[in-house]
Amino acid sequence: xxxLTTTFALETQxxxxxxxxxxxxxxxxxxxxxxxxxxxxxAVMGPSGSGKSTFLSCVAGIDRPSAGRVLLAGTxxxxxxxxxxxxxxxxxxxxVFQDFQLMxxxxxxxxxGLPWRLSGRRPDRARVRGLLDRVGLADRAHHLPARLSGGQxxxxxxxxxxxxxxDVILADEPTGAxxxxxxxxxLALLRACVDExxxxxxxxxxDPVAAAYAxxxxxxxxxxxxxxxxxxxxxxxxxxxxxxxxxxxxx
Length: 251
Prior knowledge:
By secondary structure, this protein is an alpha/beta fold. The chain has helices spanning 52-59, 82-91, 108-118, 125-134, 150-162, 180-197, 208-211, 234-250, and strands at residues 8-19, 26-37, 41-45, 67-72, 75-76, 93-97, 168-172, 201-204, 216-221, 224-230. The protein is built from eight helices and ten strands.
């Protein structure tokens, strides 16, 4: 089914996810309505157990919501079967993980081209090389991950996320394993993906410094949207996060 014309790269409507039954039921997401415009950078934050990871899993088609809908570029993908969702993740969603998740026996160039190979297509070598050049690793194309620093590995992961020109890039704590200086470089690169390439980035993070690179910060508490900040600053994000953490502890 063709995608509908929409200004949103990703939407969730009444997104709900429960685990367990009866008295042991846990509601990880409780009716989350969010829309992420094309060419935007959004950070998702919240206290531990707020539903951030579950949200990312549900919109990526890794976990199935109990109710509600997930729309990718206007197409409702909520009820797609596992095969269609797997193809969706290879071709229309880019992933950046905290632990990089590069294949250790593949070179940087081969890791970047992997989504194409998994889709049964021959990688466009010029595009792969161009992306490695964009992330500053043209001279590391033939290096295995073991010969790259943590920041370089994450740059390879970002190039891999971009290779299929996805509708959205989902980043899960992308700077969590990096020192602060290296993290800033990675965040600047994600920012450039939005500003220069028109990509859409949704990033889960606990770090106010990382969140300040985004256009918007959305806060989740107990599986619900608990507020947002437009044009965030580090101080504004840190203050809101501290307030939400205090509320969580007091309950």
